[in-house]
Amino acid sequence: MADVSPSHHHACAAAANNARRRKLLAAVGLAPLLLWQLIFFVVPVLLLLVISFWRTTNRRMVPDFTFDNYRSVFSNGATWRALSLSLETAAFVTIACAVLAYPIAYFIAKKAGAMKNLLLVAVIAPFWVSIVMRVAAWRLLLGEHGVINQALLSLGIVDQPLTALLYSPVATAIGLIYAYLPLYVLPLYASISAIEDNWISAAKDLNATPLRAFVEVTLPLSLPGLIVGAVFCFVFGLGEFVTPALLGGGKDMMMSQIIQDQFQRRLDWPAGAAIAIVLLAIVLVLLAGSMKWFRQASGEKL
């Protein structure tokens, strides 16, 4: 057996100490994040899960174990209609944001030049204003006597104000598209910025038309940004409450409004908790599927 010198032992011990130090620093760095998630996500979700198996008697929670709340979720027509409307609205908003965000992100990443930083600030500027104020502004625009109706009447396009613009699923979709468009632009901008211009030029040098170079080079390489943006828009749109409450009018309720109704108006916290847990389960399943799709698109091994 070959002799091992003392210097080799010292080098091995130093490497082991460095590895332990790196792990300790990583644990210390992650501790605030883990603590935050534990207090503000894990504990509340566990409380909701426990409450969802209780029953309500005379508007008071009784800790009797029951599946009745979950049976009610899957047998209640109003809940299914709310889930269907939430899924349809979130899907429409996601597709609309993708169509609108791609040219914006592409222009900022590839064509804006010195204006790039200014345009990026413009994209995130709406976040500096409260979501309630932004939605209230849309009420002024979409209302029966709002700016859009007055403009249509002035131009002679319509004879009567369009009452369907406000307090409808259309108004909810418009508000959600406006709210989440920046969340789609930013990850898409990051993906398109990472595409080297030389790769697109190489495709054109091989006689690819601009359209074919976009379809076969730019679009596939920007797919991770498209997926991340889609996840943001769909998940946030599925659980959004403020915009549907202020622009939807309450005629066609989304899942978040059903949950709020159970908690605040009916004081049936176990039923509201069961609906919230079902909605959370749907979101987690969608997130798991999208993560797998994202890894495939970005070339990571599964």
Topology (elements, then pairings):
Blueprint: H1 6-51, E1 55-57, E2 60-62, H2 68-75, H3 77-111, H4 116-124, H5 131-142, H6 147-154, H7 169-193, H8 197-205, H9 210-221, H10 223-239, H11 242-247, H12 255-265, H13 269-298
Antiparallel strand pairs: 1-2
Helix pairs in contact: 1-13, 2-13, 3-7, 3-10, 7-10, 8-9, 10-13, 12-13
The string of secondary-structure elements, in order, is HEEHHHHHHHHHHHH
Strand content: under 5%
How would you state the average pLDDT, rounded? Answer: 88
Structural class: mainly alpha
Q: Give the number of DSSP strands.
A: 2
Give the uncertain stretches in residue-range form: none
Biggest sheet character: 2 strands, antiparallel
Task: Give helix % range.
Answer: over 70%
Tell me the strand order in the biggest sheet.
1-2
- Rg, nearest Å: 26 Å
Q: Sum up the overall morphology in one term.
A: flat
State the end-to-end distance: 41 Å
Number of helices: 13
Q: Which properties best describe this structure?
A:
302 residues; mainly alpha; two-stranded antiparallel ribbon; flat
What would you note in describing this structure?
- It is a single chain.
- With 302 residues, this protein is mainly α.
- It is 75% helix and 2% strand.
- It is built from 13 helices and two strands; from the N terminus they run αββαααααααααααα.
- A two-stranded antiparallel ribbon has the order 1-2.
- α3 runs antiparallel to α10 (223-239) and α8 (197-205) runs antiparallel to α9 (210-221).
